[in-house]
Amino acid sequence: MNNMNKWISGLENLLIVFAGLLLIFIIGGQGLVVPAVLQVLGRSHPLLLHFPIVLLLLAIIFVLIPGILPENNQKQFTRIFLLIAAFFAGITVLSGWMLSMEEGYEGNDLEIHKWLGVAVFVATLLLYFLRNISGYSPKIIASALAITLLAAGHWGANLTHGSDFLMEPLNAGQQDQVPLEEALVFDHVVKPILDKKCVNCHQASKSKGDLRLDEINFIQAGGKSGALFDSAAWQQSLLVERLDLPMDEKKHMPPKGKVQLTQDELAILKLWVEDGAPVEGKLATMEAESPWHTLAASLFTETTTYDFEPADEELIESLNNYYRRVRPLYPGSPALEVNYYGTAAFAPASLAELNKVRHQVVSVNMARMPLAEVGLDWLDGFDKIEELNLNFTGVSVEQLAAIAKLPNLQRLMLAGNTLSAEIIPTLETMGQLDFVSLWQTGLDAGDFEESKLKSNQVVIEWGFLGGGETYQLNAPQVKYDHVLFDKTEKVTLKHPIGTVKIKYTLDGNAPDSLNGNWYTEPITVDQTCELQAVAYADGWEASLPQTVSFYRKSDETVRMNLNTSPSGNYQGKGTETLMDGEKGDVNYASGAWLGFKDQPLDLEITPSGEELSLLAISMMYHEEAHIFPPKRITIQGQKAGSSQWTDLAQETFDVPSSSQPNRLVQLRYELPKGRYEKLRLKVFPVTNVPAWHRGAGDKAWVFVDEVLVN
């Protein structure tokens, strides 16, 4: 046997080995544990996959198109190409299967890609071993292999780049557009940025760091590194920190080499986090001077071509000052937009200066400017104006008669001005009008039942007050220095909207009409408790509770000892972790948490001799990461002078019916007040993860970082 035949025989034997290993992976499924060395092979999958693709395509061409080379030469090349391609296909499939077992890969796209990869390997084996056997048609197998190879490549590309990567340039212009006045803050401003720049790596089929950004509930849940938002200090939110990291930093988002956020997109995401990451609410309900309007405007501007003569650049520049901005609608456009700022500095005489560019101005924003005593006749001759924002300017019906002379006015904002039905005839004379904002004007939809505006399909924006729809307030912000404190902790509550009232409780129950105290001054917390605060305002739906758990440290002489050991990599500093006064965050891999899975947490506590009435446990729940609420908790005690254990408290927990956002939980148990020789705490983990979970049947974890007695 010559060297060539030895190599061929060796590779053929390896193909059988690969098939056996693949069968083990298929049978073992997620129960297999991949060692670190093989994880490196798994991560080489994107590098390896190109070799079998090229070789398979060459081999398929040789099978389907005879006569490219002399017959014997073509058969020999076909054999070699198929054998080497099958070898690399086997390694590629095995490495891909290993990669799929890492965190962050799941979903239908992954499953389809995995099985198509297996099909490519099997079809390659069939084509190689059956190509010269009578009764089998190599061309049929080769054709099926080509189709399977293309399908596997397509689904693999979906995993890497997102499901719409290939057709995105063609589909970009086909996406549904909404007018700026109807745009929702999250759905139409924030989410498109996440979809375009973030979702490819953080979606159902590929969730790096256990983080998904394709749906709001997953965004709120956070990922392996914790929650994305910090309501107490938005600048320290994980999302903001990752976006602000230098480009060369490993954790910078988006990663180096990916399409980066523009300055406007980055500013929008930061502003969203600063405002409490709201999910509901329209841009139209934002304060007129809010930066939301300026930042979001570019996302909704449809590029319109204007063919009129541009104004002189020096003239345009001369009209700009600290309180007025005149600039092209977009670079190179002759159309101008005008924005006024600073109510106190507004000078009515400055309006006449705009007459010099009256034939170029298409948009004027005077929201919040004091126009109650200012005539609008200065608008005469502004024949190109398409949008006029007079929100909260104090204009009257009589003043607005002047705008009827604007021949091209399409969008008119009048919110916050006291008006009467006498405005309707003026609006009806505007033939180009297609949108008008009238919320908080004293008018309602009934005033327009017989109006031609309705038949002309003019959109009338009533906001949340006029239309009966209410929006939910953002949760209050809780300011403090430490959640783990010695004697007392000062806590301050605030809300971005100054007129909002805040109600709070310290017993773990959400405030409502019967429970809670109205916040009037900083709160002094002197005991272990769970603070919940809710924001209220007329015309708004109450906010969701903002919850912060505070822990008063145990006396320094308290001693603790674990009778059981934590599991796996979550052993922290052992018993010391439970009493070191260092509160863990939502990153369960930070080393601040003890994890128990194979046996319960069994902790003996030797008090200092003082009277005790409370035992508190700080826990983390994160079902997506197999960290569940405990199955059961028991607390026993030995009274001073007695060696008999007596039951003091116990609780049994319901198993969750679905994954919930990653969260920190305080469990408090009242003890019969007295002095104790010892206390014994047992926290039992769930032994059978429910069927709805991807780890169904496995043991769940319980995570604890602090145990305190007061």
From TrEMBL:
Protein name: Chitobiase/beta-hexosaminidase C-terminal domain-containing protein
Domain called Cytochrome C Planctomycete-type: residue spans: 198-257
Keyword Hydrolase in annotation: no
Residue intervals of the GH29D-like beta-sandwich domain: 486-543
Keyword check for DNA-binding: no
Lineage: Bacteria, Pseudomonadati, Bacteroidota, Cytophagia, Cytophagales
Species of origin: Echinicola pacifica
Alphabetized Pfam families for the sequence: CHB_HEX_C_1, PSCyt1
Gene3D superfamilies reported for this sequence: Ribonuclease Inhibitor
Key words, A-Z: Membrane, Transmembrane, Transmembrane helix
Transmembrane domains' residue ranges: 47-68, 80-100, 112-130, 140-157
